[in-house]
Amino acid sequence: MVGRNVGSESGKLRQDIIDKLISLWVHPDDPLTFMQIHRGLVKKGVVKDLKNKMTTVRILRRAQKLELIKHENGSKEYYLNVVPDEFKIFAFLQKLREESKGVLPFKAGGFLWDICQLYCLGMPESALKQHPDIEFAFQILGIRIARLFTAIKSLAEEAKKREKIPDVRHGIPEEAAREILLELIPYYLGSRAGCDFDGLLLEDVQKLVPIMIKSLPEEVEPQNPTLKDEILKNVEKLQEMIKRKKTEEEEELAEEEMKDFALIIIPPEHLIDEDGQERRWIKLILEENADKSPLYIAAELLGYKKENVDNVLDIYGGKLLGKAKLTETRTCYEKMHAACLVSKIIGSFNYYDDKTKKEALKVIQELTEKVGRKSIIVLLAFGRHYWAAELEPDQFEEEFLQKFFPYHTKEEIRNWLAEGAALYNKVVEEQEKEMKKKLS
Fold this sequence. Notes:
The protein contains 20 helices and eight strands. It has 440 residues and is mainly alpha-helical.
């Protein structure tokens, strides 16, 4: 679809315009109004000015002719009619969901992060909620599959390194070595042992596993337990869950249905679609905190890329927060973001060379002119570099006085810092309350 400029008579749109238009939708099924799309295209540089509405009109007309978007006559809303790359996998899973009558998503990982995403096609999503025995089994098998996925991925990374530097051998990666050692016993007992050398039968495994577990020490090293007793309890639990022998009718049904089963394993979402995931999180933050103060919402948005925050605020902010609160939130976020940049510069200033120091001082001057010196100083508390500097008493104040804010007295700066610390602590307290609600 690479064509001429928007104003040409070819009826086509340049690919870069198509990409920017499609990227305005956080979710494919979101309805966007003309003004939401227009503001987004202006922000992305496709349309020069908010006054140039006819440019957006022409783009949308051509996008409709190319069947990129849907817009019914009389409706104020536009819908996406094509699938951007970041949604393709989900659309593919949806198609399989319709064909296989069920998809069970499963995110495996640690307490705060995911190792990978598993999709079981052919297993109803209600399986884990309605059947405790299936949930118990799936939790164990799902985590092991996720760990093996990570191990195989580390081997692929090692293979790529060896292709680039053929003479260097780093050995088996730690992630893979750990899983291989853990899998040696199931590999031999499950696939090689037995009279036919294709693995032990269930009855043999039921006898052998408890004996092996009882031979484990209580801990490998002090404060490094093996959880031996917990493993034994789960073995007993599993023994009770083992299903009775299937009837002939059940065997035939299983044989027929398993043709529709598949397992998809992909990296965690933040690796395959970082910006898309961020925009979805940002939209969720706006939805969940629409009743909170602009200060609180702005603080929640600080951990994300500014371009993603701006994108979601432009497209969804007015609808989710209302015009007045959106304006306040955006103003607060701009000031807070600027303060965080200044905090980072001040916290790292002594490590810069002379040239970088001059550039850094110029950046600080531009930011203070944009949002105001007092706003910068008050909101410095929201920058992690500010709290790191608190480890050395008065360092931040001295740095202000000597190099960054010579126009204010030390007392003024300390009062503003105290004001900012109070605001910061208030937001943190509210965040902790929200976290406790979610965990309770």
